[in-house]
Here is the input.
Amino acid sequence: MILVDTGPLVALFDPKDEQHASCRQTLASIRLPTVTTLPVLTEAFHILGPESRGSEALRSFVSEGGMSIHFGSHEEAMRCFELMSTYRDPPMDLADASVIAAAEALGTRRVFTLDRNDFETYRIKRGHRLYPVEII
Here is the structure.
């Protein structure tokens, strides 16, 4: 399973985005199920614009099974807040925190992101150990 961050979603559904072609190529090469979180979708729809063709295409992509949505628990929300307190410089936003919390809950380290600098800093907790994110 691969968690998808905001950047690739915006690039995939905005043909004018400079990363559009490379994100399409990456998505086409992925053979594992893709999953995202509600905060990531919220951020992507905000950036694309609610009435844009990109938002419409993203809604269709999710509706037609192109990607699943992980609905986190209350405990995951609390973990997001903990992560946001831990990663303060630069500050971690809720969308990024939701991806890391979902990775912990779902047992994956793979994240499709364009935000390499931040995700190289983040760590995924498994028991008492911390592991780096595997950036796709």
